[in-house]
Amino acid sequence: MQFKVICIVKASKEKYVKYHVTNLLNFTAFLDRVYPAWLFFNVFNPATNKQVTSFTKYNRPKEKKVSLE
Questions:
Q1: Does any domain span residue 63?
Q2: Do 31 and 38 touch, CB atoms closer than 8 A?
Q3: 48, exposed or middle or buried, with CB in 10 Å at 0-12, 13-18, 19+?
Q4: Which residue among 1, 16, 18, 29 has its CA within the 20 to 30 Å range from the CA of 35?
């Protein structure tokens, strides 16, 4: 089983999208391609549905995974 988190993205001024993510670095590259105007995304622990962290277009993740604690 792969490590997954839930990411909710503010993809544009009017649109939010939700993804199940295993690699945050690949995910930000995907966002750049598909939603070039994305603003931020929040990362949630799928077991507890609690927010773990958030990232912006200019404050990106530096690692593939985040700690769920």
A1: no
A2: yes
A3: exposed
A4: 1
Name beta bridge partners: 10. 16, 40
In a domain, 65, yes or no: no
Residue 46 domain boundaries: 5-56
Please give the model's pTM, rounded to 2 decimal places: 0.91
In tens digits, the chain (69 residues) has pLDDT values of 467 999 999 999 999 999 999 999 999 999 999 999 999 999 999 999 999 999 999 999 999 998 877
The 3-state DSSP class for residue 32 equals: helix
Establish if 47 belongs to a structural domain: yes
Q: Tell me how many domains the chain contains.
A: 1
**What sign does the CA torsion over 36, 15, 10, 5 have?**
negative
Q: Is 27 exposed, middle or buried (0-12, 13-18, 19+ CB in 10 A)?
A: buried
